[in-house]
Design a protein that fits this description.
heterodimer, A: about 650 residues, alpha/beta, 8-stranded mixed barrel, 6-stranded antiparallel beta sheet, 23 helices, elongated, disordered C terminus, B: about 400 residues, alpha+beta, 2 domains, 9-stranded antiparallel beta sheet, 6-stranded mixed beta sheet, 27 strands, about 25% helix, globular
Chain lengths: ~650, ~400
C-alpha cells in the first residue's frame, strides 16, 4: 500500500512536469513566432499581424486589441491595432482595470466586469461581461495594453493564462521598443540573434519534451500523438500494424554488466531498428526496455510477419560491449489496425498482450494478437484483483491434512495447506491460484496469513490432538532461498514458544539448489529447533551426497512411488532402498498420497514405514472446520 | 518582494497570550498585507480580532478557531495557542470579507467573494487564490456559490472552523467581525506567486459499493442494503456495537473513511475522502460531506505513520507548484483535519516537524479543521480527513 501512495505521487509529479514541458514548448514556439514577427517586419509595416495570429491561438481568444494612452486626453486610450480593422482608431475610456494594466499588472476578469466605457464599434456580444485578459504593453514610448477577449460563452481566462501573459508582455514590450526606437543595425541584429537563440532553445526544449533522451526516439506521449495522426490520415481500407517489442532479460544485462552497458544495448537496438524501418513508419521507446513500431500502410499480414521477423533477426545479433558478448533477445507482439483496435491505446494494449504471450511461449518469439488472448488477459487481471482483495480481507486460510500412524491411525502430525475462500464462499486449492500469485509476488503474504491462522488456533489444536503433534508448513523454492522471508517465518514460529512443533517442507528441487540454503537457511532452522522435511522425495534431483550433508528430519515419499505399490515391484524395490537409507541416517519417513486400503496393507506388511498421509486417512479440511467438528478427540498416543 | 512570518503564543487567558504575541511582533516587525489568525476555541475571538485590527490596520485579516491550537515551524503549539501568519506584499492585493450563512449559502458565498474583491481593490478580477474559513455544515453550497463566479479557474482553499470538542464552539473572523455561523472569504493577488496542494493520506482497502439512496449528508443504502451494515462488512465489524443501537462513530471511523473517485492520472485513481459521523436509525450513516446517489464509494484505510508523513508531502507538493520553483518559497499555510489529528494522537509533534522539514524551515502556520476545501485534479471540492497546503513565493 505504501508503494501505491508513493506511486500516485510520483505519477502526479511526472505527469505535471511532462504536461508543463509540453505546454510550455508549444506556447514558446508560438510566442517566439509572435516576437519574430515584431522584429523581422520592416519598421514601417504593422508589427501586430503576426503577433495577433500567435496570441489568439495560444490564448484561445476571439479578439485582440492594442490600446495606448492618447496624447493630450487623460483618461482615454486609443486603439492602434486590432484583429478587427473596424476597431483601429477607436477611443476607449479608461477604467480601473485598464489603469492596472497600464501600470504593469496582468489582469484576468471574472463575470460582470465593468465594460461601460468600451466603444460601440466593438460587437455587442463582447461588451456584455465577456471574459477578458489585460496585459501591459509598451508601444511607441507610451504606456499601453493588449486586451484579449473571448466569446461570452467561452470559459474565462485562468491563472495559467495570467502567468503566460506576464512572460509575453515583458518580451513583447522590449521587442516593440527596439522596433520603435530605430535601433542601430547592430542592435537589430543582436535582437534577431537573441530570437534565433531562443528559437533554438525552444526547439531543443520541444525535442526534449517529445523524445527519449537516451535513444533520441519519440517518447511515450509523442508516439501517441504520431500514431493518432497516422490513424487519422489512414484511408478507408488501409491497414497498419503496431509491434510491441520487449527486450528479454534486460535487467540481467544491467545487473551483470552495469547500467552503462544496458544503455549501450538500448541505443544499439534503437539504431538497428531505425536502419530497418521505412520513412513512413513510426518507432519509439515507451519505457525502460519497451519499444513500439507502427508499420504504416501494409498490404498483407504476411508482409508484416516478414518485416517483423527480419527486425527481430537484426535485433538479436550479438554485440560486444566492452569485453562482454551480449546476445540480445526480444519478444514481440503485433496488433493490427483496424481489426484489433481503432486507437493507439487499444492497439498498444493488444500488442502488449500478444507480446506477453510470445514471451510465455518462448522468449525471443513473435506472436500476433487474437481475441482469445484478450479474454485470457482480462481473466488474469480479474483474478489478480480478486487475489489482492482476498489478501486485504485475509481470505487465505489454513487447511490441515492429518499424518497418521498407519497401524494405529493415531494422528502424529498435520500438513498445513493454503486455501482461498473467495468472495462467494467457495474454497479454492492452490492449483487454482498459486502460479499466478507467484507471478504477482503475492505468495509470501498468503503464506503469512496461513501461518497466522495456524498459530492463532494452536491452543485449540493442542486441546484436540495433544502437544506432541507436529505441523508441516510448505515453503516454495523461491521462498526457501529468500532469507528475509525465512527469517520472518522462523521468528514467528519461534514466538509460539514451541518451534519444535513445526517442520518446514521443502521440495527436492530446493534442496538441490543447496548453496544459499545450506549456508544460511538451514542454520537458522537448526538454531530455532524447527524441523526440515524433503517433500515429494523420489521425484527430484537429490544427490545422495547432498543428503549426507544435510540434517533432515523427514523424507516424504512421493505419491508416485506409493500409488498401487502393492502391485508394482519396481516401486517396491525403490521404496526398500529409500527405507534402508532413511533408517541408516535416522530420518523419519512419511508415505504420501495413500489412497487405498491395499496400499496401506502393503506398507504395514512389508515396510517399517510408520507414518502415512493421504485420502485414505484424512482429506484436507479447513482448520476452522476441524475444530468445529464433533468427532472424538484423537490424541497422539505418545503424548 | 513577499515576506512571510509566523507568530505563535500560548497562554491560559487571552490577554496573557496576546501580550506574548505583541512582544514577539515587537521583536520582529514587518508590514502586513494579509494576516491569517487561528486560535484555540478557548480564547476570546473578539479580543483577538481587536488586537489584530489595531496592529495591522491596513491588512486583510481572516481566520478563526482551530481544534486544540495551532502548529508552526516552531512545533506543535497545542492547547491555549494563538497563531498568526503575516504576509507582507506591498506589490500584491488582498481583501477579506465575512458574511453570515443564511438560508441560501451559495448566494452568501457569492456576495462575500465580491465584497472581498472590492476590499482588495480588485472588483471584477480573477484572484490568484480564494481562501475560505467557514462554519461546518454547508461547505458544498459555499463552493457552489464561489464556483458560479470563478468556476475552477482559480483554486478555492480553506477549512471548516473547529472547536475542541465538536460542541459548536467554532468561530470565524475577518476584518468586519466574528461569527459562529459565518463564512470568511479572503482573496489573494500575490506578487510572488502561490502554490497549493490538496491530498488525503488514505488508501483504498478493496471494497466499494454504489450509493443507491442518500439524503444530503446521510447515506441511506449502499448497493441496496442499509449503509451502516455494508460499511460494517467492509471494515470487518468496526461498527458491530453500533449497528443495533446507533450512535457516534467519529473516533472509530477516523482510520476508515470512505472515498470518492475524482479522477485518474496514468490509471492511478485519486480519492476525495468523507468522514463518517454517526449511525442513525435504520442503518443510515451520517457524514461530514454530501454524497450523491449513484456515487461509487470506496472503503479507505489509513495508518498513523502515513498520516504523519503526508502533511510534509503535501507541503512539499505545494512548494513545488510555485511559479518560480520551490526555492522561491517565502512561507506557507497548512490545513490539517482535526480527525487526522485525533488519529495521529501523540505523534502530532512529528507532523509539525515533517511540515517544517519539507517547507525548508520557512515560516508556516497550521490549523486543525472539521472539513477541508481544496482543488483536486483541477476541480474545487470539499472533503474530510484531507490535508491542504498553500505555499507563498517571494
Amino acid at each position: 500500500m505504501e508503494g501505491s501512495e508513493e506511486l500516485r505521487e510520483a505519477l502526479v509529479a511526472l505527469r505535471r512536469e511532462n504536461d508543463l514541458l509540453r505546454t510550455e514548448t508549444t506556447h514558446a514556439k508560438l510566442l517566439l513566432t509572435a516576437l519574430e514577427a515584431v522584429l523581422s517586419v520592416d519598421s514601417r509595416d504593422d508589427p501586430f499581424a503576426g503577433v495577433f495570429s500567435a496570441l489568439m491561438t495560444v490564448f484561445e481568444s476571439c479578439r485582440a486589441i492594442v490600446l495606448i494612452e492618447r496624447d493630450g486626453s487623460a483618461g482615454e486610450l486609443e486603439c492602434i491595432a486590432a484583429d478587427s480593422p473596424a476597431l483601429v482608431g477607436t477611443v476607449w475610456g479608461s477604467s480601473r482595470l485598464f489603469e492596472k494594466a497600464l501600470a504593469g499588472r496582468v489582469v484576468a476578469t471574472i463575470s460582470d466586469s465593468d465594460v461601460s466605457s468600451w466603444p460601440d464599434a466593438l460587437e455587442r456580444d463582447f461588451r456584455i461581461g465577456t471574459p477578458a485578459l489585460h496585459m501591459p504593453l509598451g508601444v511607441r514610448e507610451k504606456r499601453g495594453l493588449l486586451l484579449l477577449l473571448r466569446a461570452p460563452d467561452q470559459p474565462g481566462f485562468d491563472r495559467a493564462h495570467v502567468a503566460l501573459a506576464k512572460k509575453f508582455s515583458l518580451l513583447a514590450s522590449h521587442a516593440l521598443a527596439a522596433r520603435q526606437a530605430h535601433q542601430s543595425e547592430a542592435e537589430s541584429h543582436r535582437l534577431k540573434r537573441l530570437t534565433e537563440q531562443l528559437r533554438i532553445s525552444q526547439a531543443a526544449l520541444s525535442h526534449r519534451a517529445n523524445h527519449d533522451q537516451l535513444t533520441g526516439l519519440p517518447n511515450r506521449a509523442h508516439i501517441q500523438e504520431l500514431v493518432d495522426n497516422a490513424i487519422a490520415r489512414c484511408g478507408k481500407g488501409k491497414r497498419m500494424a503496431l509491434a510491441f517489442i520487449d527486450l528479454d532479460d534486460f535487467k540481467r544485462v544491467n545487473d551483470l554488466h552495469g547500467h552503462a552497458a544496458g544503455d549501450t544495448l538500448l541505443k544499439t537496438i534503437a539504431d538497428r531498428v531505425c536502419a530497418r524501418i521505412r520513412d513512413t513508419d513510426i518507432f519509439g521507446r515507451i519505457s525502460g526496455d519497451e519499444f513500439v513500431i507502427v508499420l504504416d500502410d501494409i498490404d498483407r499480414r504476411q508482409d508484416i510477419s516478414e518485416m517483423v521477423s527480419r527486425m527481430r533477426g537484426d535485433l538479436c545479433e550479438p554485440l560486444w560491449i566492452d569485453s562482454a558478448l551480449i546476445r540480445p533477445s526480444a519478444s514481440i507482439g503485433v496488433a493490427f489496425y483496424p481489426a484489433h483496435g481503432k486507437d493507439y491505446e487499444t492497439l498498444r494494449r493488444h500488442a502488449d498482450i500478444a507480446m506477453y504471450e510470445a514471451k510465455k511461449a518462448s522468449k525471443g518469439s513473435i506472436a500476433f494478437y487474437r481475441r482469445e488472448l484478450g479474454r485470457r488477459t482480462s481473466e488474469r487481471q480479474r483474478l489478480e484483483q480478486r487475489l489482492l482483495r482476498a489478501l486485504e480481507t485475509g481470505a487465505f486460510r489454513c487447511a490441515l491434512q492429518q499424518k497418521v500412524d498407519i497401524r494405529s491411525r493415531a494422528v502424529v502430525g498435520f500438513e498445513a495447506l493454503m486455501r482461498w475462500i473467495d468472495e462467494d464462499g467457495e474454497v479454492h486449492a492452490p492449483g487454482y491460484f498459486l502460479k499466478l500469485a507467484g507471478e504477482f509476488g503475492l505468495v509470501d503474504e498468503m503464506t503469512d496469513l496461513v501461518v497466522g491462522d495456524l498459530l492463532d488456533h494452536l491452543k485449540l489444536l493442542d486441546a484436540r490432538f495433544g502437544t506432541n503433534v507436529r505441523y508441516s508448513i510448505n515453503v516454495s523454492p523461491t521462498q526457501a532461498t529468500h532469507l528475509p522471508f525465512i527469517r520472518k517465518l522462523v521468528e514467528r514460529l519461534h514466538s509460539s514458544g514451541r518451534p519444535r512443533s513445526f517442520i518446514l517442507e521443502l521440495t527436492e528441487e530446493t534442496i538441490a539448489a543447496i548453496g544459499p540454503l545450506q549456508r544460511q537457511v538451514l542454520p537458522l532452522l537448526r538454531e530455532a529447533g524447527i524441523g526440515l522435511s524433503i517433500d515429494d522425495f523420489g521425484t527430484g534431483y537429490s544427490s545422495l551426497a547432498t543428503l549426507a550433508d544435510l540434517t533432515v528430519d523427514e523424507l516424504k515419499i512421493d505419491r508416485s512411488l506409493i500409488s498401487s505399490i502393492h502391485s508394482r515391484p519396481r516401486s517396491q524395490s525403490i521404496l526398500r532402498a529409500i527405507e534402508s537409507m532413511s533408517l541408516a541416517l535416522g530420518i523419519s519417513m512419511v508415505a504420501e498420497g495413500v489412497e487405498t486400503a491395499e496400499e496401506n496393507l502393503y506398507l504395514m506388511a512389508h515396510t517399517r514405514l510408520n507414518i502415512g498421509q493421504g485420502y485414505l486417512f484424512h482429506r484436507p479440511e479447513l482448520l476452522a472446520d476441524i475444530l468445529r467438528s464433533p468427532q472424538a478427540v484423537q490424541r497422539n498416543l505418545c503424548g | 518582494m513577499v515576506r512571510v512570518k509566523s507568530f505563535v503564543a500560548t497562554g491560559e487567558t487571552t490577554p496573557e497570550t496576546l501580550s506574548r504575541l505583541a512582544e514577539a511582533l515587537e521583536r520582529d516587525p514587518l508590514g502586513a498585507s494579509f494576516v491569517y489568525i487561528f486560535h484555540d476555541a478557548l480564547h476570546d475571538s473578539d479580543a483577538i480580532l481587536a488586537f489584530a485590527r489595531k496592529r495591522f490596520a491596513d491588512a486583510a485579516i481572516l481566520g478563526g478557531t482551530s481544534c486544540n491550537g495551532v502548529m508552526s515551524e516552531a512545533g506543535l503549539a497545542e492547547a491555549g495557542s494563538i497563531g498568526l501568519l503575516v504576509i507582507e506584499d506591498p506589490d500584491g492585493d488582498y481583501g477579506a470579507a465575512i458574511v453570515k450563512l443564511e438560508a441560501n449559502a451559495a448566494d452568501c458565498a457569492e456576495q462575500a467573494l465580491h465584497d472581498a474583491l472590492e476590499r482588495a481593490g480588485c472588483a471584477g478580477e480573477l484572484p490568484e487564490l480564494i481562501w475560505l474559513y467557514q462554519a461546518p455544515g454547508r461547505e458544498e453550497e459555499v463552493i457552489e456559490g464561489l464556483r458560479r463566479v470563478v468556476g475552477d479557474r482559480c483554486p478555492i482553499i480553506g477549512g471548516s472552523s473547529a472547536d475542541n470538542d465538536v460542541a459548536g464552539q467554532w468561530r470565524q473572523l475577518a476584518n468586519d467581525g466574528v461569527l459562529s455561523d459565518g463564512l470568511a472569504i479572503g482573496v489573494l493577488f500575490s506578487s510572488g506567486g502561490i502554490g497549493f496542494a490538496f491530498q488525503g493520506g488514505y488508501e483504498p482497502s478493496g471494497e466499494s459499493g454504489v450509493v443507491t439512496q442518500s439524503r444530503g449528508r446521510r447515506i441511506v443504502t449502499i448497493d441496496g442494503a442499509p449503509a451502516a451494515e455494508v460499511y460494517n462488512r467492509w471494515t470487518g465489524g468496526l461498527l458491530d456495537d453500533k449497528i443495533g443501537s446507533g450512535g457516534n462513530v467519529l473516533a472509530s471511523t477516523t482510520m476508515h473513511p470512505v472515498g470518492m473517485d475524482v479522477g485518474k492520472i496514468e490509471g492511478i485513481t485519486h480519492y476525495l475522502l468523507v468522514h463518517l459521523d454517526a449511525v442513525l436509525e435504520d442503518g443510515v450513516l451520517s457524514t461530514f460531506a454530501t454524497i450523491d446517489e449513484g456515487t461509487r464509494l470506496y472503503s479507505m484505510k489509513g495508518e498513523r505513520s502515513r498520516l504523519v508523513e503526508r502533511a510534509g508531502r503535501v507541503a512539499a507538493a505545494a512548494a513545488a507548484e510555485l511559479p518560480q520553483g520551490e526555492d522561491s518559497l517565502a512561507g506557507g499555510l497548512v490545513v490539517y483535519c482535526a480527525g487526522c489529528m485525533m488519529a495521529v494522537g501523540d505523534e502530532m509533534p512529528e507532523v509539525a516537524r515533517a511540515v517544517t522539514r519539507r517547507f525548508g524551515e520557512k515560516p508556516f502556520l497550521g490549523c486543525f479543521t472539521f472539513g477541508e476545501q481544496g482543488t483536486m485534479l483541477g476541480r474545487n471540492a470539499h472533503g474530510n480527513l484531507m490535508i491542504s497546503a498553500i505555499a507563498f513565493g517571494k
